[in-house]
Amino acid sequence: MPAAARVTEGQQPAQLWIVSSHDEIARSVGALAAEHHLHVACAENGVAGPCVIDPAIGTERLASALGGLHDRPPAAIIRRPSHASSVFYAMRHTTGRLVGDPRTSPGELRHFLIDVYGAVDSTSERRAYPRAGLSGIALEAPSPAELLDVSPYGARIRVEASLAAAPLVRLRVRLARVGLTSDVDAQVVGVHASPDHTELRLRFVRVSGEVQQELLRIAKSQLLCRTVAETFRRAQAGELVGYRRIAEPDQIVATLHALAEDAAPLTFARMNVGRAIQATAFAFDEERRHLVVTLPEARALGAVGDYLCYSTFARHESFSMDGYLLGVDEGRARLSVPSVCAATDQRAQDRLALGLDSALTVEVGDERLPIVDVSPRGFSFFAREARVEHEDGRLLEVDLDFGDGCVGHERVVVRHRRAQPWGGYTVGVTFVGEGGRHTEGVVRAALEEDYSGADLEPLFAERDYPAERVELHAGDRALVGLWTEVRHPGPLTVVVIPPAWAKTKESTSLLAQTLAASFDANLRAIAVLRLDYSNALGESDKDPEFRQAGKETLGLTFSACVEDIRAAVDYAHRRAHPTPRSTVLIGMSFSGPLCLRAAALDPRVTSLVELMGASDIQDLVRMASGGIDYVAKHRAGIRSHVQNVLGLLADTDRWTADGIRHHLVFLQDAQADAARLAVPVLWVHGRFDAFVNVGRIRSILECAPTLDRRLVTVPCGHIPTKSAEAVVSYVPIVRHLLAQVEVPDAVIAVPTEEQAERVSKGEWARAPRTHLASPRDYWRGYMLGEQGGSLGFDALASTREYRELMTKQVELLATAAGDVVHDIGGGMGHSIPFLARLRARPGGVVTYDLVPQVLAQAARRGAEQAMPIETVEWDAAFEPVPARLGGARTVLMSLFLSCLPDPLAFLRRLHAALPSGAWLVASSIRPDADLSGIYTSLIEEIGQGLVPPPEGVSSDDFLSGVREYMSSAAWLLRLADEGTFRFFEENGLRQLFTTAGFSVEHVTTAFGTPPRAVILAARKNA
User: Fold this and answer.
1) Across 12-21, 369-378, 388-397, 937-946, which has the greatest mean pLDDT?
2) What is the pLDDT of residues 583-593, one digit of tens each?
3) Is 267 helix (H, G, I), strand (E, B) or coil?
4) How far apart are CA 305 and CA 289, in angstroms?
């Protein structure tokens, strides 16, 4: 073995184990390990970390080397079809992947070492995202010069040698789509000289926002086009891991039917003046054998006979296809049946084909059948006839014979059953368990209940339940938590609650108080520990490069989050004396799969509760990002780099690489974890939660061997935290936990609104909070978009739910012909088109707002509707009421009061200024209003062409703008959590106006189902 290379100062040398008796293989592995500063050791009787396995040593010796391990080590398994049994055994007992022989193909093993010992770092170069070619961009100066590539932050150009000496370069670029020519100043940061030319690497130091935004849009579009074409080409050639080829004509046609039924969005690898082409699957024409698609500009796909590559997403799979353009009609295009489809496939990676004469067999029921291919996640077997137990979704218990006397008992789920041209069927299955038979048998359906909260008659808590700030450690990372404890005689129940995405420990204050009050009322002891993840929002440790505001979550990895959860369990067990009677994990949203993993690994966990927990991270992120599958793209070798995911920057490559390496992102990962559970499971699902797929949750619960598993549906959206809806979703959890400590008829106790707010304010007062240095800048970005050309609030205004809200509000104004409507906080004038359609059309509108650029948009809308409009710039939080309002008879305040630091003080000033008889209509988003349903429906309707983009905005820019706005809205909800803004329920809004002196005449709700906003009409009496 070569000596280990010197490692970075302060680091411990890492260990790589080799399970092989072949000297040449050991030398090859040692040489590769030395490149990565690894110690190398042979392992014949046990490994203690990542390893390289040569299956030629046989299954019996492998069993000795891998036996007795608590956690499966990551392993590189040398691909040896002649030793199929030992390959399969190594796959099953490690988190292994197949690699070529390191003596002749070292590349795959090198990639394995990089993945295991070093996370992907896409933040080192700012220009890494996104960089693209030149469609729609021309370089007019300097001349002669050639533009090689460009990003929003810099460029690479080819110039004459004399220009290379200049420290600054002025470029003149022409952007075809927007008809803009602009000068850009750039600093030379790199020079590469060759005999015939010189290349300069430039960083922009002066560039207009409009140019930068257009470069960003072009770069993203070209990156998407390259992704589509490259994915299809490589998948078709069999070069791409993580995809399976669909080549049989019947299966391809069935796939096209599914795309048409789902109205799946399609993205074509073709640029049209710098943008990708978006379309929607409309129908499959059986007679002509054509796929019909709809798109705003059908001729943008090119000429009849052109060859096209495109990608799509349907039924939780990504597809890459090709075809020829066969015809173009108005708004529709017809495509040929693809020659082949490439679909994402968990088992495509590291699959070893064996053939029908395989000696490896599986016993299914009373039959022993040949295994025809194997992978770390499952296998396929051959059956001569279709039987009921081979149907998709079936859970089976099977016996495997690995040879050398090694036998395995496994639980698997059937993924597909395919007829073969030569007769018979291949049945693909995925592992969902750690082996071992369950004497109670396999129960297929989880018990599902619908909980409406109709029987909820809680007591109010008699006292406050404040939390103590605590510090704990996960390895060398310091974590910060909040500890709430109620002591009574008897053993303690410990509840650990990690945060959801974009949340911190303070966000679950009401849940902790409800648990404490209810256990207290039933004379039971409880301790609730809430924590912040490391390298995330909140007070826990962050690596130095991620401590800057806005970058806190760039270092987050899923495996580290699981370690943080287990460290919290460690702390709770050390602090609780004596040992807790029960230890409960509550996973919310993004933390759901992470708590599932922690519960599967840690025998101290006695119960798992999922509160709107995601089924799997891949699906949650895909839904939350508007259909972008970052995980599938990463597995295909396509990098997405840093993205804004619901208001937070995330290094999608860092956490995807970590999640894939630790089996923490896919549905199959969650199913495998569920199969290892030996504890009760309660899954609380929100009926209106569009981010979490209840069908996938059922498939996870079906894999859990425990019979104590419940799926409860509550009439809520995604993770409510501070409203009556939140209490309704907490009640099944409280009853579940009290039943486990033998309180069958539990009393539910909740804090009063005043108590809950008092405790929550105390927690937030000592926590780091977002500081808005300039409210004017914040609202400008929120309303207009963070960058020029963005949609901003126009994205939300395009939804049918917002149109319903505005329609109800203007109808309640009850204007008379010629009245002037005073729109306070009127923003971009979104009320004006609705006012213009009233039968008694107002004589004009006065719009008041803090942001002058927003008022300019309102003036434009007024002109479009031929509505006389006056705009007034006004900081309503601090400036006196404008004299113009002294004669106002009709006032509209749509979604405005929540933006003020002191709404009551403002309403009192307004009441004093308004004339007697003045009529007001105001609205507020309700606390815990969940926008997931509105967001996902809008994305779907845009894809189907049901919601046309605004004038002058392309379909892909429209989708991008909607996704950007959703991130802004998610951050606004975060600010509401912190108390910067406050949303109101019906009683709160009514009390606010009554206290200010107004007479409340009418209160109603609107903004979708369930209604997400409250509308109030009031009058100033004489």
Assistant:
1) 369-378
2) 999 999 999 99
3) strand
4) 16
Contacts 24+ apart (CB under 8 A), 788-792: 788/209, 788/210, 788/213, 789/210, 789/213, 789/214, 789/217, 789/957, 790/213, 790/961, 790/964, 790/965, 791/950, 791/953, 791/958, 791/961, 791/962, 791/964, 791/965, 792/828, 792/961, 792/965, 792/968
What is the distance in angstroms between the CA of the first residue and the CA of the last residue of the chain?
95
Whether residue 532 contacts residue 504, with contact meaning beta carbons closer than 8 Å, is answered with yes
Q: Write the DSSP string, 749-761.
A: EE--HHHHHHHHH
| Euclidean distance between CA atoms 484 and 465, whole angstroms | 7
Q: Comparing C-alpha atoms, which of 414, 410, 413 is closest to residue 438?
A: 410
Tokens of 375: 């992978």
Q: Which range is least confidently modeled, 5-9, 69-73, 476-480, 874-878? A: 5-9
Q: Is the pLDDT of residue 135 over 70?
A: no
Residue 269: both structure tokens together: 């690898």
- 675: three-class secondary structure by DSSP: helix
CB-based contacts of 1012, cutoff 8 Å, min separation 6 = 801, 925, 926, 929, 930, 931, 934
Three-class SS state of 288: coil
d(CA 728, CA 987): 18
Cis peptide before 142 (omega within 30 of 0): yes
Selected residue with higher pLDDT from 283 and 316: 283
Distance CA 584, CA 546 (A): 31
Among 88-97, 201-210, 324-333, 553-562, name the one with the lowest average pLDDT.
201-210
Query: How many C-alpha atoms does 496 have within 13 Å on its Cβ side?
Result: 34
955-978 helix and 932-943 helix, angle to the nearest 10 degrees: 180
**What are φ and ψ of residue 922, in 5° steps?**
-130, 155
| Residue indicated by tokens 């309707």 | 941
pLDDT value for 809: 94
- 846 with 820: CB under 8 angstroms? yes
Mean of the per-residue pLDDT values of the chain: 82
Q: What's the rounded Cα separation, in Å, for the pair 175 and 216?
A: 12
Phi/psi of residue 14, each to 5°?
-85, 155
Residue 446 pLDDT: 42
341 CA to centre of own chain: 26
Q: How many CA atoms lie within 13 A of 266 on its CB side?
A: 32
* pLDDT one-digit tens code per residue, 10-27: 334 578 889 988 889 999
Give residue 39's pLDDT band: very low, low, confident or very high (50, 70, 90): confident
Q: What is the CA radius of gyration of the chain?
A: 31
Q: For tokens 């600054």, what's the residue?
A: 168
Beta strand spans in 36-104 (E): 38-42, 51-53, 75-78, 97-99
Q: How many helices (H) and strands (E) does the chain have?
A: 25, 46
Note the pLDDT tens digit of each residue in 409-432. 888 888 778 888 778 888 988 887
Burial of 861 (0-12, 13-18, 19+ CB in 10 A): buried
- CA atoms within a 13 Å half-sphere pointing along the CA-CB vector of 535: 23
Q: Measuring CA to CA, which residue among 1012, 798, 999 is closest to residue 898? A: 1012
d(CA 574, CA 583): 12
Q: Is the dihedral of CA 859, 862, 866, 868 positive or negative?
A: negative
Is 9 in a helix, a strand, or coil?
A: coil
Please state the three-class secondary structure of 165-206 as a single string: HCCEEEEEEEECCCCEEEEEEEEEEEEEECCCCEEEEEEEEE
Mean pLDDT of 725-750: 89
Please state, in angstroms and as integers, the Cα–Cα distance from residue 991 to each residue in 750, 904, 907, 1018, following that order. Answer: 22, 10, 12, 12
Report cis status (omega within 30 of 0) of the bond before 144. yes
Angle CA 495–500–502, to nearest 5:
145
Question: Which token pair is 881?
Answer: 């009421």
